[in-house]
Structure formats: C-alpha cells, structure tokens
C-alpha cells in the first residue's frame, strides 16, 4: 500500500496549485497454484464482489490489462474494450468481474520466463548481529540506450545507515557518472524510518550496484515480537522508470528479513526461580529458628 502526493499546476504560470493524492495497493494472486487454471473472479479471489462505487469520486472504474492474456478467454460481464484494456464502470454495481479460458484444461508456464529490460535485486551482506550491509543491483538489458531510473527505499529506524560508506559500481561500462541526484533523510529513533532516494542514469547493457553499511540497534525487550528469533521484515524498494511511450513503470524488489540482536528471554524466568529459591531457603531457616524449642538432654 502506498500514497503518492503530487503538486499540480492549475495554470501555465503555476500561480495556483492543488495537491493530488493517489492511493495504490499492490497484491499478487496466483489462481494457477490452487486450481491449475487461469480462471479467476473477484468472488473467487477476494470472497466478495463490488457492490457500489466510491461516493466521493467523480467516476469509478476497474481496468483489466489483457496484454498477456493470450486468446480464447471469455470476460464477464462484457466490458468496454480499448486496445488491450478492458474497463468496467462501477455505476453498474454490483459487479463480479472475472475471466474464463474455456478451451484450456491446464495452464502451463513458459519454460523460459522473459525478464524485463529494467529489473533490480536487493539483499543484505555481512554477518553477525551487530553490523551489516545493504546492496542493490540494477540491470539495464537495453543494448543501445541509457535508461533513467529513480530508486526509492525506506529503511526502518533500527538499521542505522552510514552514508559515507555509499559506493556505486558499474559493470560492463567505464562510465561511472550514473548518480544524478540523491536525497537522504535520516531516521528518528522510534519516530520515522530512513528515506533514501536516488536518481540514476543506467548505461546501456550494464549492471549498476549500490552498497552501503549499517549498524543494528539493540531494541528493548518489550519491543521484540513474540517470534523474535525469526527477525524483522523490511519492505520492498521501488524502482521507477519510463517506457518508450513515456508511461510510468514501477518495479518492486523482494522483501528482506533482518535478524537483530536478540536477548535471552529465558533470563527473567531464571532470575525469578533463583530469587524464589534463595528466599525460600532463608525464610525456612529463619522460621525454623524462631519456632523451634531447644532443650538440653
């Protein structure tokens, strides 16, 4: 889930502006894994249909991209088709949008998946529970053109980034001037995450790697989750670029899992048992001395 804020000029001189807010939700569903077929519907995926349009919006539409849907599919209900886009007007709600491939018994994935022209990978480096590193590798598979991209990452406050360790390495080209602009907002403990944004120009047929080091913060024992030894999830980074028709594309990296210094949660139990044992021995000895009568025989 993300919220994008954009300042839009209302006239040519840009004397008046308005703020446009766009809320996006990204979710990946795989009906083939459960049924072996590509058939899908809103009721089958989300267990509900669209009952009404947004009361605050001027228009509410659902757009389905069928560029990679192949042939032989049957959409329901019948949509308005514009090229490879099918749109539904929510004023006709309730709607249970879906697609069915009647002549397809089972869907077979292609043997050689196609990689996009621009894609990225992000992973942790180093070892131990005190320090580590973050490395981002971006690939430009275009043979002749340089591609501008914007890398955006939000790192939780319990990972202290060191920007003086920031390095850029270009594999395949001698041009190392790939970083055009960079913005960094440091984190506030228990207040806000670190924000790192970088504008780059990826050379053609190259691999660009960015890396920086960080320290792991010692959390309070009350700030750990019940499954503390599993680690903490780090959200995806976003790589924004534009295609040949100047359409904005967003590429999301994989989520990461970081293991922070974890205390021994059995120590409070050990302290309680040891303290209770000492108190019991002391109380038993004192109580025995107070109530026992000593006589000479």
TrEMBL record:
One Pfam family cited in the UniProt record for this chain: Gpi16
Membrane-spanning residues: 271-291
Keyword check for Nucleus: no
Sorted UniProt keywords: Membrane, Transmembrane, Transmembrane helix
GO cellular component term, pick one: GPI-anchor transamidase complex
Presence of the UniProt keyword Isomerase in the record: no
Gene Ontology BP annotations: attachment of GPI anchor to protein
Superkingdom of this protein's organism: Eukaryota
PANTHER family (UniProt xref): GPI TRANSAMIDASE COMPONENT PIG-T, GPI TRANSAMIDASE COMPONENT PIG-T-RELATED
Protein name: Gpi16 subunit, GPI transamidase component
Protein source organism: Rhizopus microsporus
């Amino acid at each position: 889930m993300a919220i994008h804020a954009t300042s839009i000029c209302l006239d040519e001189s840009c004397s008046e502006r308005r703020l446009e807010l766009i809320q996006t939700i990204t979710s990946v569903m795989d009906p083939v894994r459960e049924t072996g077929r590509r058939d899908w519907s809103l009721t089958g995926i989300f267990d509900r249909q669209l009952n009404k349009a947004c009361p605050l919006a001027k228009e509410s539409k659902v757009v389905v991209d069928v560029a990679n849907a192949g042939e032989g599919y049957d959409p329901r209900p019948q949509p308005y088709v514009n090229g490879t886009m099918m749109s539904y007007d929510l004023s006709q709600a309730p709607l249970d949008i879906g697609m069915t491939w009647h002549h397809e018994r089972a869907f077979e994935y292609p043997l050689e998946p196609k990689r996009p022209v621009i894609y990225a990978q992000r992973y942790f480096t180093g070892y131990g529970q005190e320090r580590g590193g973050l490395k981002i590798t971006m690939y430009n598979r275009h043979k002749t053109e340089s591609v501008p991209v914007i890398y955006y990452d939000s790192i939780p406050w319990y990972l202290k980034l060191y920007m003086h360790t920031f390095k850029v390495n270009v594999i395949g080209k001698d041009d190392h001037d790939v970083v055009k602009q960079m913005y960094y907002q440091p984190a506030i403990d228990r207040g806000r995450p670190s924000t790192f944004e970088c504008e780059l120009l990826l050379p053609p047929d190259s691999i660009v790697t960015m890396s920086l080091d960080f320290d792991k913060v010692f959390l309070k024992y009350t700030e750990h989750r019940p499954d503390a030894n599993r680690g903490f999830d780090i959200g995806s980074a976003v790589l924004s670029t534009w295609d040949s028709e100047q359409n904005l594309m967003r590429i999301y990296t994989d989520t990461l899992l970081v293991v922070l210094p974890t205390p021994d949660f059995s120590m409070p139990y050990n302290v309680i048992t040891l303290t209770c044992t000492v108190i019991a021995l002391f109380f038993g000895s004192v109580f025995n001395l107070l109530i026992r009568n000593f006589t000479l025989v």
